[in-house]
Amino acid sequence: MYQKYIKRVLDIAISLTALILLSPVLLVVAVLVRAKLGSPVIFHQDRPGYQEKIFKLCKFRSMTDERGADGELLPDEIRLTKFGRVLRTTSLDELPELWNILKGDMSLIGPRPLLVSYLPYYTDEERLRHSVRPGLTGLAQVRGRNLLDWDRRFATDVEYVRNLTFAMDVKIFFQTIRKVFVHEDIEVNTNQVEGNFAEIRKAKQKKE
C-alpha cells in the first residue's frame, strides 16, 4: 500500500512544497552558477530510472567546460572549481532533482540513479535496484555515500528494495538532513574515491 500509492503522493507533496519554499535559494544558486561557471546553468544527463527507463537527471552544473589543446575536456579535478566544490559539499547542486521527483522520474528516497553505461555490468541481484524509482537520497547515502565500495553500495540498494517501508523512508530522510548539515561522508571528487564501476567490472570479468 505504502510503496504503490502513498509513497508517490508524499513525493509530489514534498517536492512541490520544497520547490516553492526553496525558490529563492534556487534562484540565487542559478545566478551564481551562471556568473561563475557559465551556461547552461542546469546540467542534464541520461540516467536509468524505474524499470531501467531512461530519464534526464537535472542538477546545477558544478564544473567548467575547460578543454585541452586536443579539444577534449580536462579532467574533472581541474574543471571542478572552488565554487563547484561548495555546491557539492552542501548538496545544493542536487536541488533541481526536486523537479525530477515532481515529474515522477525519481522519488525522494531510493537508490541513487547512476550512469546508463553501467547497465550491462549489473548482476541480476543488483538490477533489483531499478524495481523502485531512484532517489534524491537513499540507504546507501546515509551509510557512507561514495565512501562505500560498489559491491557494498549495491547490496545496500537491494536491501532497501527488499525492506522498503514508510518507517525506513522517514529514518533515511532525517539521517540525510543530519549528514548534509554536518557535511558527513561527502567526497566532491567521486572518481578518486569510487573509480569507474564499468571499468572495475570489466577488469573483474577478464580475471574470471
List keywords for this structure.
two-stranded antiparallel sheet; globular; 10 helices; mainly alpha; 10% strand; 208 residues
Structure commentary:
- The protein is mainly alpha-helical and 208 residues long.
- It is built from ten helices and four strands.
- It has one domain (2-207).
- It has helices at 2-21, 23-37, 76-79, 82-89, 97-103, 139-142, 150-162, 166-182, 190-194, 197-207; strands at residues 42-48, 54-60, 107-109, 135-137.
- Helix 1 (2-21) crosses helix 5 (97-103).
- The longest helix has 20 residues, at 2-21.
- It is globular.
- The protein starts with a helix and ends with a helix.
Summarize the structure.
The protein is mainly alpha-helical.
> What count of structural domains?
1
Cα end-to-end separation: 43 Å
Strand order, largest beta sheet: 1-2
Give the rounded overall mean pLDDT.
Answer: 88
Write the layout of secondary structure elements.
Elements: H1 2-21, H2 23-37, E1 42-48, E2 54-60, H3 76-79, H4 82-89, H5 97-103, E3 107-109, E4 135-137, H6 139-142, H7 150-162, H8 166-182, H9 190-194, H10 197-207
Parallel strand pairs: 3-4
Antiparallel strand pairs: 1-2
